[in-house]
């Protein structure tokens, strides 16, 4: 079975942010790989944050209809809704690790989906939260996503 990979908000943001071409290219490489392999996962929290970051003045400045289309397109990634079960799991993560409540919810959502990797630059690269290992997609530029994930349809 191919590993499922949970993708945090900033990876999607960098894909649309022209201010850092290196990160934009790397984010695009990861997202394209996960889309082809159909192994990318996310949550509605990520979609909400993405919309805010795409339309916010401090970040990229997409107009709302364009940002909404980007968000709608990502629903094929099977976003999980944050429910009480995930919140309970997030509180457990937060109590056992030094992470913010928002990062704990991301970790809990990844765990609930059975993901083995969490793609983010907001947590320590290589850290494991149970079965979920943190991978900073911008740190391992010399390796392809397929090499890091271990294959997976690409």
What's this model, at a glance?
This protein has 154 residues and is an alpha/beta fold.
Topology:
Blueprint: E1 5-7, H1 9-16, H2 21-37, E2 40-41, H3 44-55, H4 64-73, H5 84-96, H6 101-112, E3 117-119, E4 128-129, E5 132-135, H7 145-149
Parallel strand pairs: 1-2, 1-3, 3-5
Antiparallel strand pairs: 4-5
In words, what does this structure look like?
This protein is of the alpha/beta class and 154 residues long. It has a single domain, classed as 5'-nuclease (Rossmann fold, 3-Layer(aba) Sandwich). The protein is 50% helix and 9% strand. It has 7 helices and 5 strands. It has a 5-stranded mixed sheet. Helix 1 packs across helix 2 (21-37) and helix 1 (9-16) runs parallel beside helix 3 (44-55).
Features:
154 residues; alpha/beta; Rossmann fold; globular
Instruction: Name the beta content range.
Output: 5-15%
**Average pLDDT score:** 90
Tell me what the CATH architecture is.
3-Layer(aba) Sandwich
**Principal-axis shape:** globular
- Counting DSSP H or I runs of 4 or more residues, the number of helices is 7
